[in-house]
Amino acid sequence: MLSRTAANLFWMGRHLERAETAARLLDVGARITLLPNTAEGYRNEWESLLRASGAQAAFAERYGDEITQENVETWLFFDHANPSSVASCIERAREGGRIVRTALTSQVWDALNSAYQDLRALERRSRGQLDPAMLTDFTTRHSSTVRGAINATQLRNDGWHFINLGYSLERADATARLLDVKYFVLLPRVEFVGSGLDNYQWQVILRALSAHRAFHWAYGGEVTASKVADFLILNGESPRSLLTSLYEAVWHLDGLVRRYGAAVPASASARAHETLEQLIARDIEAIFDEGLHEFLSWFINEVASISNAVHDDYLSGRM
Amino acid sequence: MRLKITHETSYCYDPPAQGLVQSLRLTPSVHEGQRVADWTISVSGGQRGAAFRDGAGDWIEGWSVRGPVQEIVVSIAGQVETRDTAGVLRGHRETVNPLVYLRPTAATRIDAALRDLALSEQGEDGLDLAHRLAAAVARAIAYEPGVTEAHTTAAEALALGQGVCQDHAHALIACARERGLPARYVSGYLHSNAGGEPHDAAHAWAEIHVGSLGWVGFDAANACCPDDRYVRLGSGLDADDAAPVRGTTFGSGEESLDVRVQVEEMEQ
Amino acid sequence: MTIYYNEMVDGGLVREPYAMLSDWIETMPAEIRQMKQAEAEALFRRIGITFAVYGEGGDPDRLIPFDMMPRVFLQGEWRRLERGIKQRARGLNAFLRDVYGRGEIVRAGRIPAPLVYRNAAYEKAVVGFVPPRGVFSHIVGIDIVRTGRDEFHVLEDNCRTPSGVSYMLENREIMMRMFPALFRNNRIEPVDQYPELLRRTLASVAPAKCEGEPTVVILTPGHYNSAYYEHSFLANLMGVELVEGSDLFVDGGFVYMRTTQGPKRVDVIYRRIDDQFLDPLCFRRDSMLGVPGLMDVWRSGGVSIASAPGAGVADDKAVYTFVPEMIRFYLGEEPILNNVQTWTLWKDDDYRYVMANLKDLVVKEVHGSGGYGMLIGPRATKAEIEAFAERIKADPGNYIAQPTLALSTSPTFVDEGVAPRHVDLRPFCLCGDRIELVPGGLTRVALREGSLVVNSSQGGGVKDTWVLSE
Fold first, then answer.
1. Domain C341-403 class?
2. How far does CA A144 lie from the centroid of its chain?
3. What strand order describes the sheet that includes C241-243?
4. What are the pLDDT digits (tens) for C233-248?
5. A312: closest CA among A279, A270, A251?
6. What is the chain B residue with the closest CA to C103?
7. Residues from chain B contacting residue A3 (CB–CB below 8 Å)
8. Confidence category of residue A150, pLDDT binned at 50, 70, 90
9. Cβ–Cβ under 8 Å, residues C359 and C385
10. Is the Cβ pair A260, C47 closer than 8 Å?
11. Can you give the residue ranges of the DUF403 domain (chain A) (predicted)?
12. What is the per-residue pLDDT for B266?
C-alpha cells in the first residue's frame, strides 16, 4: 500500500475520533456549568476545558478573553480555524477519504460523505436552533455510522489496520485528556476532593464518555474517584479506557507486523508493547499515588511516541 | 592539445538531506574536434542509474543518493585530446532537427534592442552573418563578471551592456534565431593559456546552424570560435536547458555549494 | 438553411436503431421520467462523479447533466467507425514514431518541417527514443461528428490523455441499473471490459527491463484536479495504485513508489499530468507534480510512460489537417474517416478566405481545447466577430478555421418531452501490443436548443452510447 494512502487512512481514523472528542468536550463543559455552587460562575469551567484541549492560546487569539459558552461552542464545533473542531475534523476526514477513495468501500465513502453533507447543512442553520446536546448527538451518530461501515465492509487488510490504529491511538489520547479535564477543574480547589461535588464531576465525565450506564453495570454502588478512574484507565471491558484503546492499537500493530514480515521495521509495535506492559503493571492506587495528572502526562507522551513510530515505520515513505 | 580536467562539486546540507537525484551532462561530446582518452564521473555515496546518449548527442547519466546525507561530492576527472576545427562541429551524431533550435525561451526572448542588434548586421551567407552577429554581441556586451546572475536574460544583459559568457551566448542565440538561424547554447570547459582564474575553466558559448556547414561554435565572450582549448559537453535551447548538472534534493535543509574546476594542458 | 441529420427520424420514419426506444419513450409517463431523472442525478452525486472547470468558480462538485436517452449505433455503422478509428490511431502513432526518428514524412515533403519541429508540443528530449512497441499514444480519443447517414468526420484527435472515459462507463452502469428491461430486450454490446483492456494495454508496453508481471500505476496531479474522479475511478477498476508525483522517486535507473513496505518498483506509468510537469529535471524546473529524474529513466528504458511525452505534436489542430496524409504515407491506405475541411490561417489564401467569411465559420486556436478560445461565426455578434478578427490578425499562425458543421441530432429528453439535440462522439482507442476499441464511447450533447457546443463547460451533457449487436 502506498505510504500516502496509509497516512490518509490513519489520519482519517484519527480525525473521526477527534471529531467525537471535540463533541464530548463540549458535552462535558455544558454539563459542568450546570453544577451548583460554582461561585466564580461558568467561566473557569470553560477555561479549564480549553486548557485540557490544549487550545487556550489559539482560542484567545481568535476570541480574546471572551470565554462564553457560545464562543466555546463555536470553537469546538464549527470553527474551521480550530484544527480539532468537529467541522474541521469531519471535513479533513472526508477530504482524506476522497483522496484514497479507491481504498474505501462505497459504504464507507457514503457514510463519510453524508456526514460531510449534513455538516454543511447544519452550518447553514441558525445557531438559535442548535444546542450542545444536539451537536454532540449529531457527531456521535455520524461517527458511529462511519465506524460501522468501516467494520462491516472494509477488507481486513493493512488499510483496515491503519484506520483502526488511527482510531485507537486517538482514543487513547482523548480519554487521557478528558480525564485530565477533571484535574484542571479541581486543581484550584483541593478541598473539594472526595466531596459531593467531586463525585458529581466524575459522573459528568462518565456521562461524557457515554460510559455512565456501563460503569454502573461494571462496578455498581457509589461513584468514587478511584472506581471511575479504574474504569477509564485500567478496565479492559470499558470501550474507551486507556487499556482497551492501547490493546487495540497493539492488536492492529501486531496485525501489520504479521502481514509485513521482518523486512519492514516494527519500532511502533515494540514501543506499544512496552507501554502496554508498563500500564498493566500499575493499579489504580499506584496511579493516584503517582498523581493522576503526572500519570496522564506520561501516558499522553507515550501515545505520541507510538504515533511517531507508526509514521517512521509505515507512513514516511522511506526510500 | 591534451587537456586534463578535474571538476569537483561538493554539496553540504544542514540538516542532512533525505536524498538526491541528479541528471548529469558532464561527459565530453564525441566529434572530430575532441577525443576522450579517459573519463570518470563519481558521486559520493551515489548510485548510477540511467545512462544514455540523447537525440542531441549528449551523454546523460542519472545519479541518485539515498539519505540521510550531509555532504555529497560529484567528482569528474579525465583527459581529452582536442583538435582545432575552427569551431565547426563535425562527426557529431545527433538526430534533432535544427529547426527545433529556433524556439524562443525565457532567457533568449527577443526584445526591441536585441532585434535592432540582430538586424544591424548583414552577411554574404549564413556563416558570414553568424560571424558578424557574434562580433556585434561582443561589442554590445562587455565582459564583466558579477554584474549579471544565473537568471539574467539576453535582453537584460544587453540593456546592462555587461555580462559573462552565459549572457554573450544568450544574446547571440537570440539574435541568430531572429535572423532565422537555428542557434543553441553549449556548455563545456575552457583551458585558459593566460593562467586565468579557475572559475573561468567552466565555460559556455553558442552554436549556430549555418546551411551546408552545419553547427558552428561562436564564443562571443572571447570573440573567437572554439578551438583546441575548448572541451564541449552538451547543448540546449539556453543555459537552463543545457545545464550540465540538474538535480533535486529531498529535504528541507540549507544547501551550500563549492565548485572547483581545473583544466590543465598535459605534456605530450 | 442547414439540414441536420436526425439520427432517429430519417425520411419521416423512425430508424431501426431507435425503433424500440420510441416505444419506451411513449410508454413512459412524465412523472416516472422525472423520478428516474432525479434518481440518476442522486446516483451520480453519490458516487461523486462531478467535475470542476478551472476559473469558472461556482460549485466545485458540479454534475455534468446526464440525459437518459441513449444514442444508438447499428452494428454495421459501428464496424465502419471502428475500422476508421483504429486506422487513425495507427496513423497517428506511426507519425509520432517517425517525427521523433528520421522524419521521413517531412523529408518526403508531405508535411511542412516547421509545423512539426517548431511546434510547441514537439519535445526535443524525446528525439531518438523509441518507446516499447513503438507506441507513443496509448489512449487515443478521437472526436467524431456525424453529418449524414453515412457521413462521419473527425473533428479532433486527442493523443495525450483524453478524459471522459469514466462517463462512458458510469453512464452505462446507471442506465443498466435504472432500466434493466431495456438491456434485457435489446442486445447492446458491453463496454465494461474497458478497464481490463486498458490495464492489459498498459502492461503490454512495459519496458524490456521489467521482470515478471508489470506494475502499472496512474499518476494524477492530485485530488484538486477536475478529472481526479476519473483517475481514482480507473485506478480502482484496474486494480492499480493511484499515485501522485511525491509517491514516486527515481533510484538507480528505475522508478519506485513509496509504500508501507518500503520502495516498490514501477514499470508503467499512465500519467494524467502534462508533459511540462512530468520531470523538473527535464521540463519545468518549478514543477511539484512530477518526478525528478523520470525522463532519464524513461529514455534509458527503465519505465514506460503512457502517453509518451511529446505525443501532443500529433493532436495539434494544425497537424490535424495532415492526418489523412499520414494514413496514406505510413499505412498506404485511404482514410476511412474524413477530416473536416480546415483552413490554416498561416497560408495567405486561406487567411484571406477566412477573414472574408468569419460570420460563416468556426475559428479555433491551434492549441486551445474545451471550447475555449473559439469563434462560432453564425452565433457571434458583429462586435464579437470584429474583436476575434483582431486577435487573428495579431497571430494568424495560431488559428485554424472550419465550416460550421451540421452536427447530427439525437433524441434527448427535454422539459417538454423528447426533442432532437446536437451530439458528437468520443471513442477511446487503446494502442499497445494490439489495437482495441470497446463498442461505445462518450456521447456529448448540446442541451440548449439549437446549440452546437457540446463541451460540458458550456452547457453540454452526456449520454450512454449503444452499439447494437447483430
1. alpha beta
2. 14
3. C241-243, C216-219, C268-271, C304-306
4. 999 999 999 999 999 9
5. A270
6. B97
7. none
8. very high
9. yes
10. no
11. 1-315
12. 86
Whether C281 sits inside 8 A of B21 (CB atoms) is yes
Taking one residue from A and the other from B, the number of pairs with CB-CB distance under 8 angstroms is: 5
Q: Is B66 on the interface with A (CB under 8 A)?
A: yes
Q: How far apart are CA B157 and CA B236, in angstroms?
A: 19
Q: Nearest CB to C281: which of B19, B23, B103?
A: B23
Phi, psi of C61 (to 5 degrees): -100, 35
C299 vs B54, B99, B248: nearest CB: B54
Domains of chain B: 2-81+245-265 (2.60.40.2250), 84-236 (3.10.620.30)
User: Is C259's CB within 8 Å of A158's CB?
Assistant: no
- Of A1, A101, A109, which has the smallest distance from its Cβ to C259's Cβ? A1
Residue closest to B238 by CA, chosen among B162, B164, B139, B167: B167
d(CA C199, CA C194): 9
- Rg of chain A over CA atoms, in angstroms? 20
Angle between helices A3-32 and A158-186 (to 10 degrees): 30
Chain C residue numbers touching B60 (CB-CB < 8 A) = 296, 299
> pLDDT digit string (tens) for C330-360?
999 999 999 999 998 888 899 999 999 999 8
Amino acid identity, residue B248? T
Across the beta sheet with C361-365, the strand order is C343-344, C399-403, C361-365, C374-376
Residue of A nearest to C263 (CA): A319
State the sign of the Cα–Cα–Cα–Cα dihedral C307, C313, C318, C322: negative
What is the pLDDT of chain C when averaged over all its residues? 90
Name the residue facing C118 among B52, B99, B250 (closest C-beta): B99
How near does any CA of chain A get to the CA of C195, in Å?
14
The domain locations on chain A are 1-153, 156-319
Q: What would the pLDDT profile of A25-56 be if each residue is shown by its tens digit?
A: 888 777 777 665 555 544 566 776 777 667 77
pTM for this predicted structure: 0.91
Q: What is the DSSP string of C222-286?
A: -TTSTTHHHHHHHHHHHT-EEE-GGGEEEETTEEEEEETTEEEEE-EEEE-S-GGGT-TTTS-TT
* Residues of chain C contacting residue B247, judged by C-beta atoms under 8 Å apart: 281, 292
Cα separation, A262 vs A239, in Å, equals 31
The Cα of B45 is separated from the nearest Cα of chain C by a number of Å equal to 12
Least confident of C40-49, C158-167, C211-220: C40-49
The pLDDT confidence band at residue A196, using thresholds 50, 70 and 90, is low
Quick one: cell of C187?
Answer: 442486445
CATH for C208-302 is: 3.40.50.11290
| Mean pLDDT within C186-208 | 96
- ∠ Cα C443 C448 C451 (to 5°): 80
B18 touching A (Cβ < 8 Å): yes
Beta strands, E only, C149-200: 151-158
A-chain residues near B250 (CB < 8 A): 319
Of C340, C287, C339, nearest in space to C309 by CA: C287
Question: Do C420 and C377 contact (CB within 8 A), yes or no?
Answer: no
Contact C293 B62 (CB under 8 A): yes
Given CB atoms, is B67 within the 8 Å cutoff of chain A? Answer: yes
Cβ–Cβ below 8 Å for B248 and C293? yes
Can you give the residue ranges of every domain in chain C?
Answer: 9-207+303-335+406-467, 208-302, 341-403
Q: C302 vs B49: CB contact, 8 Å cut-off?
A: yes
Judging contacts by C-beta atoms under 8 Å, the chain C residues touching residue A158 are 260
Q: Of B65-69, B116-120, B138-142, which range is least confident? A: B65-69
Rounded distance between C-alpha atoms, residue A25 and residue A27, angstroms: 5
C-interface mutation test, from A2, A165, A316, most C Cβ less than 10 A away:
A2
- Find chain A residues with C-beta within 8 A of C259's C-beta: 1-3, 317
